[in-house]
Amino acid sequence: PPMGILNNSSQLSSLPLQILFYVNGIYYIFYFLATLAMIIYKSQVFSYPDDFLAPDLAVLFLMAILEVPRLYLGCKGNLREEEAPLGLSLGLTVGSVVLSLYLLAWQTYVLRADVVLNALLLSAYGLEAGLKVTAIAAFVS
């Protein structure tokens, strides 16, 4: 019977990774809006040098632009059990981590809320990267 075929096939895609992509997508929208609001707030409340406002905003928007293919390639690679898109997503995650570290450590003004938002984001990126490496290893073997 056809049921026997299903029982013999092994599913390699990672459910925890897929859930994490979904949660990260939702969290990133919150992160982006909160960080943007804080940059606007800081530019009003503190003496924000004009030549420092643009790089901080540029990093945030570049990060948002990276987030779309990062999550898309990750989801696609995981569900199709293909290591190439998952590997590309992992590479984009490294880029996102660097940009998040910029907003955590080198942004013109860093508020406690920035530290909390970025710590959560970096934790999620770390967990996601670990699960991606594990999934890639499963797909390759």
Automatic annotation (TrEMBL):
Keyword Glycosyltransferase applies: no
Transmembrane regions: 20-41, 53-72, 84-104, 116-140
UniProt KW keywords: Cell projection, Membrane, Transmembrane, Transmembrane helix
Alphabetized InterPro entries for the sequence: Uncharacterised_TM-17
Pfam families on file: Transmemb_17
Recorded topology in the membrane: Multi-pass membrane protein
Methyltransferase among keywords: no
Subcellular location(s) per record: Cell projection, Cilium; Membrane
PANTHER family: GEO07735P1-RELATED-RELATED, TRANSMEMBRANE PROTEIN 80
Protein name per UniProt: TMM80 protein
Source organism (scientific name): Sapayoa aenigma
Gene of this entry: Tmem80
